[in-house]
Target: Protein-arginine rhamnosyltransferase
Amino acid sequence: MAATNTRWDIFCTVVDNYGDIGVTWRLARQLVAEHGVAVRLWVDDLRAFERLCPEIEPGLAQQRQQGVEVRHWPQEWVGADAADVVIAAFACQLPGPYMDAMAEREQPPLWMNLDYLSAEDWVVGCHGLPSVKYRSVQKFFFFPGFQPGTGGLLREQGLIERRQAFQQDPAAQRTFLQELGIDPAPGSQLISLFAYENAGLASWLDVLAADARPTHLLVPEGRILGDVARWLGADALTAGALQVRGSLTVQVIPFVRQDQYDRLLWCCDFNAVRGEDSFVRAQWAGRPMLWHIYQQEEDIHLDKLDAFLALYTKGLSSGAAEATGGLWRAWSAGLPIGQHWLAARKHWAELQRHAQSWSLEQALQADLATALVQFYRNWL
Ligand code: TRH
Model:
């Protein structure tokens, strides 16, 4: 039996920031567009959603966006029938009455927890395993990942081809950037900076400002802006701000919709990203990058960082691998990265080639939406 004509419910609580809604919104759209299933996306915070999708009406209990039925997940559950497939994103707790509705279906639904992304080895062993049971309904672990045996990464059909065509078309890139009010001086390197607060930023900006090569730094409105403003000696920065220090031009840009953010990453020579979804999108951009990992209690994020670095740097020369590891570890620890940046620059051509080949290698795996549909077919 195909997944077409099935009904899927995705539940998302916005813990903080934009990753939870970022991942579930992409997944919901892709399931509808490429797998022909009906999706309801239950979200508890439509204001965060609105940042990624300005068409969202935060006051509506129910609305249709790009083929997805978006439902506000209210504190007081109003009751709804259970779908054929139920995805609880990032271990969110489903409403009690909805769990009862799942259990009361004639054919219990497939219930999955879509987990956080990690490159750690144990993920392969846990992906797809049964988790808890609620009455007759069994829950399963579904782990995204980078290695065969995991659920893969979100990647829409033809994404790599679209990215390659765009990167080979300077006129299309210029037009796109101009639409966002971005007009870098010829010959400057373009860098995007999406990160959490980071005390190590100043040392990087010092080096970029003193560099012989001009840099145009794009900073979407967000948590790192305070550090940027401090370095500039400026008051609070807002979208549209443009300041020059030595070789460095700093431009603050508005938060853009997800597909625009993808193309922004494709345009840049280097992307600093964070969390989960922007981290994956920077990999699909095929350009050298820097990851600000989301901090977790007891520093468990450091194991995740090391696990990813071990995978990512495997094909690199020892010099390039060391430079990448040094840069990423210092950045995620909030330490000065100026010298690490200069060390990485020495291996630039290799890092560029590697970013391309990494994206192509990762694209050989089944994408996450397809893997979910396949999981459902196997479960039936
Ligand atoms: O925002 P993040 O830090 O999100 C998360 C959450 O904190 C979550 O709780 C945590 O568990 C997770 O990180 C690890 O980073 P992320 O995942 O990159 O999400 C940002 C989303 O915002 C992503 O979908 C891309 C999108 N985005 C835009 O659509 N437009 C923009 O201009 C920018 C800068 C981002």
